[in-house]
């Protein structure tokens, strides 16, 4: 199949979820009381909202991740042609990787990788 | 080797002789959709019962043994139960995102299953950038988890989702850099079928020297983390978060998350098999002609699922072997150990390929 497969698999997944949810909606029992619609919190009464300021450490890792992920995208075409091009490609990728390794060491020394 | 594209080609010819092309396309789409949905559902059912049986095996108990012979229909009964449960949601959820999240976690694994070669010519979507496609689409699953956790408006869900996001994106780096790119260097192609075919002389795990073995070990570690399985399962750490990001989901919506976790485990194992263990190629020992010829009689898909089963068993074994890590330990392991090792391993692998030291 060509790239229309993506459409097909998207539709298949959506169909699967749609069918399952509609079966549940048709046959499942229903009951209601006010406590049922509270968020679950170990049986205690809920206090406050969940969407508060969150630990910044997660975002820091996400930012560093972004840099390295783009690096991987750059390396993918290199990896495909490495065998044919040979030494030149190896040296170029080595320089590229050394610069990125320096970046990792910089982040490390700046204690961006430390969880506190 | 039997070429399955001959079989699908014959079905296409036969249908084309009976009806107009628009109808043929429709029927083929429906067929492929049904086959993959069936595979998806059966994988979920089989893997859940396998997980529980193996858990029983490791703990000297029987595991589920009431429904059907040896409890084999336990998961079918569970699925029916989940299907008939009420869909409860809280009044604080973000309705749209809460309902959209299951679509992400189901459709992403389904799309990856399309590009995996199950046998010779047995791929739904033979794409030339297969490995890149897998890396790209598997990241979309994270979006579903983050949406589920955030839209639930539950503190446990949010913490679980944020941890999951941090762990999955971090471990994706090592997986992409070390494991996948190292094998792309050896095979010289991103097409999964080509990668399998390049292993006819021997699997990359054995032919790629030490870098390939390091890459395989890193791949298994990162794969465990990507699927949120036990040493890295603080996403849904039962003892501290209850259920993690799907705490507010009930009935069949919960089942979607559950199902996608198990199918993701299958995908990680299937990819490990495809790139390191020769995919659907039979096991050969150089020089043993009789043995090799007899191995050739076992069909490709059987080999594929057999090898995948071995890797899945390994992942389930981990669950009963390693204690859970804390979030800082997980991130330290990735950023201070696996990532530098991956970078060095990639250079080493490139050097091996440049010198032509492959067996």
Work out the largest interface and the residue count of each chain.
Answer: A-B, 64 and 75 residues
Mind telling me the C-alpha Rg of chain B?
21 Å
Shape label of chain B: globular
Radius of gyration of chain A: 25 Å
Relative helix content of chain A:
55-70%
- Secondary structure class of chain B reads mainly alpha
Spans of chain A of 5+ residues with little confidence (pLDDT < 50)? none
Q: Tell me the count of domains of chain B.
A: 1
- Ends apart, CA distance between termini of chain A: 50 Å
State the helix count of chain B: 14
Sketch the topology of chain A as an H/E string, one letter per element. HHH
How is the secondary structure organized here?
The complex is a heterodimer of chains A (116) and B (359).
Chain A: H1 4-27, H2 57-85, H3 87-109
Chain B: H1 4-18, H2 21-58, H3 74-83, H4 95-115, H5 130-151, H6 155-187, H7 192-197, H8 204-207, H9 209-226, H10 238-241, H11 251-276, H12 289-296, H13 300-319, H14 327-355
Helix pairs in contact in B: 2-3, 2-11, 3-11, 4-5, 4-11, 5-6, 6-9, 6-14, 9-11, 9-14, 11-13
Can you offer a commentary on this structure?
The complex is a heterodimer of chains A (116) and B (359). Chain A has 116 residues and is mainly alpha-helical. Chain A is 66% helix and 0% strand. Chain A has helices at 4-27, 57-85, 87-109. The longest helix of chain A has 29 residues, at 57-85. Chain A is flat, with a radius of gyration of 25 Å. Chain B has 359 residues and is an all-alpha fold. Chain B has one domain (94-355). At the A-B interface, helix 1, helix 2 and helix 3 of A face helix 2, helix 4, helix 5, helix 6 and helix 11 of B.
């Amino acid at each position: 199949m060509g790239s229309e497969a993506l459409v097909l698999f998207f539709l298949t997944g959506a169909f699967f979820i749609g069918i399952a949810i509609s079966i549940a909606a048709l046959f499942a029992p229903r009951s209601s009381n006010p406590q049922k619609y509270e968020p679950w919190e170990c049986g205690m009464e809920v206090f406050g909202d969940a969407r508060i300021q969150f630990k910044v450490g997660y975002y820091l890792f996400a930012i560093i991740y972004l840099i390295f992920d783009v690096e991987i995208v750059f390396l993918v075409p290199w990896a495909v042609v490495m065998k044919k091009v040979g030494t030149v490609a190896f040296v170029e990728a080595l320089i590229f990787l050394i610069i990125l390794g320096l970046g990792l060491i910089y982040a490390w020394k700046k204690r961006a990788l430390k969880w506190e | 080797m039997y070429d399955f594209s001959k079989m699908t080609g014959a079905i296409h010819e036969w249908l084309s002789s009976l009806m107009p092309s628009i109808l043929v396309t429709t029927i083929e789409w429906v067929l492929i959709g049904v086959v993959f949905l069936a595979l998806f559902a059966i994988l979920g059912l089989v893997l859940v019962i396998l997980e529980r049986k193996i858990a029983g095996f490791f703990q000297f108990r029987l595991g589920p043994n009431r429904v059907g012979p040896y409890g084999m229909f336990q998961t079918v009964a569970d699925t029916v139960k989940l299907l008939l449960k009420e869909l409860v949601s809280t009044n604080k959820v973000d309705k749209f995102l809460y309902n959209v999240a299951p679509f992400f976690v189901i459709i992403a694994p389904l799309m990856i299953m399309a590009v995996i070669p199950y046998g010779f010519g047995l791929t739904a979507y033979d794409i030339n950038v297969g490995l890149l496609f897998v890396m790209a689409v598997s990241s979309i699953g994270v979006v579903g988890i983050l949406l589920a956790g955030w839209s639930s408006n539950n503190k446990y869900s949010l913490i679980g989702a944020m941890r999951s996001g941090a762990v999955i994106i971090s471990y994706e780096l090592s997986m992409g850099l070390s494991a996948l790119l190292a094998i792309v260097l050896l095979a010289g192609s991103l097409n999964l079928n080509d990668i399998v075919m390049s292993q006819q002389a021997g699997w990359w795990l054995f032919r790629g020297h030490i870098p390939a073995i390091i890459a395989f070990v890193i791949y298994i570690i990162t794969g465990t983390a990507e699927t949120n399985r036990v040493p890295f399962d603080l996403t849904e750490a039962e003892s501290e978060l209850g259920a993690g990001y799907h705490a507010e989901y009930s009935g069949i919506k919960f089942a979607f998350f559950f199902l996608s976790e198990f199918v993701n485990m299958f995908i990680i194992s299937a990819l490990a098999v495809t790139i390191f263990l020769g995919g659907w190629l039979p096991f050969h020992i150089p020089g043993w002609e009789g043995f090799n010829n007899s191995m050739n009689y076992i069909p490709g898909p059987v080999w594929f699922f057999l090898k995948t089963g071995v890797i899945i068993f390994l992942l389930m074994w981990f669950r009963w072997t390693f204690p859970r890590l804390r979030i800082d330990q997980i991130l330290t392991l990735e950023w201070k150990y696996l990532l530098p090792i991956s970078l060095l391993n990639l250079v080493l692998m490139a050097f091996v390929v440049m010198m032509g030291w492959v067996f």
